[in-house]
Amino acid sequence: MSNEQVIDIEEFPAPFSKQIKVQEAIYDNGFHLLRVRIRERSRFTMVDLDAETARHWGQLMVDWADRQPTGE
Question: What is the C-alpha separation between 7 and 3, in angstroms, rounded?
Answer without folding.
Answer: 13
